[in-house]
Design a protein that fits this description.
Order of helices and strands: EEHEEHEEHHEEEHHEEE
CATH topology of the largest domain: Alpha-Beta Plaits
Number of domains: 2
Helix content: 25-40%
Strand content: 25-35%
Shape: elongated
Radius of gyration: 21 Å
CATH class of the largest domain: Alpha Beta
Strand order of the largest sheet: 3-4-2-1-5-6
Structural class: alpha+beta
Distance between the termini: 59 Å
């Protein structure tokens, strides 16, 4: 194997130019890929302090590493005033050493050598190393699909824990079961932060009597959730979390 070359900083950038400008915890596979299927592409997300720092980091990532498929930044600042920078890498058995090489370059640019990452929606921070990447990040499509199915089932079970309903995800089908009631099924669309998930139900609320009756029925079946219907999709929310399912009739 060829020895990895030390990444060169872009023209105009010097060591430590972005010191204190990039958060020490980054995300992996939390955001969807622009370059391909999520099962084929690993997406890293970094928080930059401001727009200029985000632009410098984005260009450094894009120009400095041949294995980077794409690097981009959020179009506007987030709720905390920071900007996101994204890096996309092909999901292969080499992902551990590639992310390690990338982080060595970013460490030089930020004068920071202790990093942590969060995988998917998990809020636990994991100390970064090549080994921890290989332990937590799937390196092929089959492992990714299995990991995501497991994650979704856990997230769904945690979300629907307010009553006596059991929920099972098989493929894209959600089955709800409760004592002394017929099971009901629906197509699973999304789960996660309310502000993100609600984008899966664009349009106006269905306020006619029939659709509102379906919302009332579902509320009685599931328990204490806020439920709205838009088109054929139901937005089921609790606090800042939400689930979207699709079904013609209950």
């Amino acid at each position: 194997m060829k020895k990895q070359q030390k990444p060169q900083l872009n023209e105009g950038l010097r060591t430590a130019d972005l010191k204190h400008c990039v958060a020490e915890t980054f995300s992996i596979d939390r955001y969807s890929s622009k370059m391909g299927e999520d099962s084929d592409v690993v997406v890293l997300g970094f928080h930059a302090r401001d727009k200029n720092a985000a632009k410098d980091l984005m260009e450094f990532i894009e120009k400095g590493f041949p294995f980077i498929l794409d690097s981009d930044m959020s179009t506007g600042e987030e709720y905390d005033g920071k900007y996101q920078v994204f890096a996309e890498i092909q999901r292969t058995e080499h992902i551990g050493e590639q992310i390690e090489t990338l982080m060595k370059g970013i460490s030089q640019l930020c004068d920071c050598y202790t990093w942590q990452f969060r995988y998917q929606k998990d809020n636990r921070s994991i100390d970064f190393s090549k080994d921890s990447i290989l332990e937590h990040v799937p390196t092929n499509k089959n492992d990714y699909d299995s990991r995501i199915t497991e994650y979704k089932q856990t997230a769904i079970s945690d979300f629907f824990d307010q009553g006596s309903v059991d929920v099972m995800l098989e493929g894209q089908t959600l089955t709800f079961k409760k004592p002394y009631a017929e099971p009901i099924t629906a197509k699973f669309i999304a789960i996660g932060d309310y502000e993100v998930v609600k984008k899966h139900v664009p349009g106006k609320l269905s306020l006619d009597e029939s659709n509102q009756g379906q919302c009332v029925f579902l509320t009685k079946y599931l328990g204490t959730y806020d439920i709205d219907k838009i088109g054929n999709r139901f937005l089921i929310s609790r606090g800042d979390q939400a689930v979207v399912v699709e079904k013609e009739l209950w």
